[in-house]
Amino acid sequence: MATVSVLNMEGKEVEKLELNDNIFGVEINEHLVHLAVVSQLANNRQGTQKAKTRSEVRGGGRKPWRQKGTGHARQGSIRAPQWKGGGVVFAPTPREYTKKLNKKERRIALKSALTSRVQADKFVVIDEFKFDEIKTKNVKAMLDSVGAKKALVVMGSKNDNLVLSARNLPGVKTALTSTINVYDILKYDTVVVSKEAVANIEEVYA
Q1: Which regions in the chain score pLDDT beneath 50?
Q2: Domain covering 3-45+97-205: architecture
Q3: Which residues contact 62 (CB under 8 A, 6 or more apart)?
């Protein structure tokens, strides 16, 4: 089993913690990690972009001038794509971007992402998040003490003081164990989790 140091909010080691190898020590499946990221980014797209083609633009029913004898190029409609106000060629239409990943694949991808952070020594465990007031500098001080700048802070339970204190910090995001995902784990350089959060993850994914 992989063993990590449990730190307090001042960055001092208070104990050692053994991580479950079924979650934090699996063989990394890069293909499924890639699919999970692609799926999440695709599912975030609204797919509502729309522009009108020449058949949908209003007007243009009359031929603008006669076919021959004017000196102009022949034209059939003022709503053709080359005209100002005309339709768009191959215009985008609303579509569904959703990509599905089955439950087993999602779990393997998440475990692979967590394992990659543990192997890179970018997985920091804090004994407890204690914030008595909403102060951004308190969260910044905690992250500085553990050497985390661009960090995903994972909570085991709801902590409004932490969430509100961290939201003004660039490059820092808070999440509950139930909302963590592969994209965020890979996007942020360091994953900072509470000891409670580790227990929750092991309980759900073991």
Answers
A1: none
A2: 3-Layer(aba) Sandwich (3.40)
A3: none
Q: Is the dihedral of CA 200, 118, 174, 110 positive or negative?
A: negative
Domain ranges for the chain = 3-45+97-205, 48-95
pLDDT tens sequence across 120-149: 999 999 999 999 899 999 999 999 998 888
- Judge whether 126 and 8 are in contact, CB under 8 Å: yes
Q: Which amino acid is at 39?
A: S
CA dist 153 and 40 (Å) reads 20
Element (H, E) at 141: helix 136-145
For CA atoms 42, 47, 49, 51, the dihedral sign is positive
Q: For residue 154, what is the enclosing H or E element? A: strand 151-155
